[in-house]
Amino acid sequence: MSDEYGPFITHFRADGRAVERLSPFDGSLPKELKYRVPNKGMEGLALTPDGKTLVGIMQSALQQPDLTKKPGNVTTLRIVTVDLRTCATHEYLYLLQDPDDTGTAVSEITALSSTKFLVDERDGNFEPGAFKKIYEIDLRDATDVGPKAKVAGAVYDSAKGGLLVGDAQSSLDAYVGKDTTEEATADLAGVGIKPVAKKLYVDLGALVTGFDPTGGFFGHDKVEGVATTDGGRTLVVSNDNDFGIDGLSNTAPPYALHAKTLPNGQQDDGEYLKIDTTKLPARVTTATVTIDVR
Fold first, then answer.
1. Which member of 3, 208, 242, 274 has the greatest number of CB atoms within 10 A?
2. Where along the chain do its domains lie?
3. Is-contact 188 74, C-beta < 8 A?
4. Averaged over 259-285, what is the pLDDT?
């Protein structure tokens, strides 16, 4: 299991006892991960189909010592792979889609193969018209930016944020700053770094808004789970409903909880959505049925 606060990866036995923990504080995970934003650490964790590698993804950019921008507006996320036999790690960059404009972060990663994965990138808005997209990524040709990085002109110093690049020897997050995704891709290429390949797999926001333009069909703000058992042909997507609560209704005791409600007025609840990707794009039709009551 991964811990978004640590960020840690903890190994539990079948009886629930924790027997092992990987951590950036002891070097079993890249040490720069200690600069995670609280509650935006290793949000997603996957096991490759061959059972050999754990793959974790951070939810947002790191709060680096030299970063002057808000991490949530920076496009660079870390993906870390862990060899379960040797515990060797590798680290790669995933670029969010213009987070300064979209406000997106990553909530899930699920494996298709030893190099290909699905990533859930989403904003925090309810439907209709929210940014909820599932991307297919490939680590195969991406540059390792972790402790084992071999990037010409770059140096690795975990205390300063990991791999340092450019004339000023900046952390990767500070180097791209508030670049757009396109600008960050070009700037990173200029210092010899290639992020993971990324392409749209399912535009979930457009899909559910197409079914109900009022946001009444799977209109959740936090789409945080994606699973597949057949190589991505069928997806099961789930949400985080925050226990149906979004705060307090008043500011003085006795306090009352305020219900978190969907655009249709219903209290938010946990829900699963099953998607057969072989039948996309979805078609919506209407029909008029006349009922004669006698």
1. 208
2. 2-230
3. no
4. 93
